[in-house]
UniProtKB/TrEMBL annotation:
Keywords: DNA-binding. Gene3D superfamilies: Homeodomain-like. This is AraC family transcriptional regulator. Residues 36-136 form the HTH araC/xylS-type domain. SMART domains: HTH_ARAC.
Length: 138
């Protein structure tokens, strides 16, 4: 045990050129970069109703399990929840910046086929109907 502690002390006194795994700022930057990559992957396929964690894992060249753990660690959400969250933010921004014609167009923009379900989920998420939000931002 003393040997391990002395080795740790020795490594921590090394020059600043030494990259340590416990270097928190470096890890945070890498994690932020990975999370941004995941968000960009989701946005690139925002209208794909069949987007899955496997698709994200393939794009990141990682296992599903690794991607699940990473997303859960960084956001506190499961990958499925993150996909939904990114989609809701995307449609909210789309409504504010663009004049969508109707709820069907909005649903398809974020990859939801069932417009009725989209309307229910939208109302649950934003506590107002899609039509109210579109009218407000028209």
């Amino acid at each position: 045990m003393r040997n391990l502690l002395s080795q740790k002390e020795h490594w921590s006194k090394e020059s600043s050129n030494t990259m340590l795994i416990n270097d928190k700022p470096l890890v945070d930057d890498i994690e932020k970069e990975l999370l941004e990559k995941v968000r960009n992957l989701i946005i690139d396929q925002i209208d794909n109703p069949n987007l899955t964690v496997l698709d994200l894992a393939d794009a990141m060249a990682a296992s599903e399990r690794k991607v699940y753990r990473l997303i859960k660690k960084l956001t506190g959400w499961t990958p499925h929840e993150l996909i939904k969250e990114v989609r809701w933010h995307y449609i909210e921004n789309l409504i504010r910046t663009k004049n969508l014609k109707n709820a069907t167009e909005a649903a398809h923009a974020i990859g939801m086929k069932n417009v009725t379900n989209f309307k229910k989920q939208f109302h649950k998420r934003f506590n107002r109907t899609i039509e109210e939000m579109m009218a407000k931002n028209a």
